[in-house]
Amino acid sequence: MTTKPRQFVAFAGHNLIARGTLEGVVLLCKQRLDEGEDQRIALYDDGNGGAVDVDFHGTVETVIENLADHPLASPPSPA
Question: From CA 47, how far away is CA 19, in angstroms rounded?
Fold first, then answer.
């Protein structure tokens, strides 16, 4: 049985700006922050509504790389 990847949502202020995998949502949020987003960005687990803490400091590559250690990150695909 195939399990569906965990889904996440992100808001800038009250506006939904992204929905998808953790990596995809974080990437879109980081891009918006780098473009000067002035609203507070909040990420949530779409399944349980829990807040998700992500460190957006550094380059896009650094932020995505750091997700490998995030407790909610998808496990790597088998080779």
Answer: 12
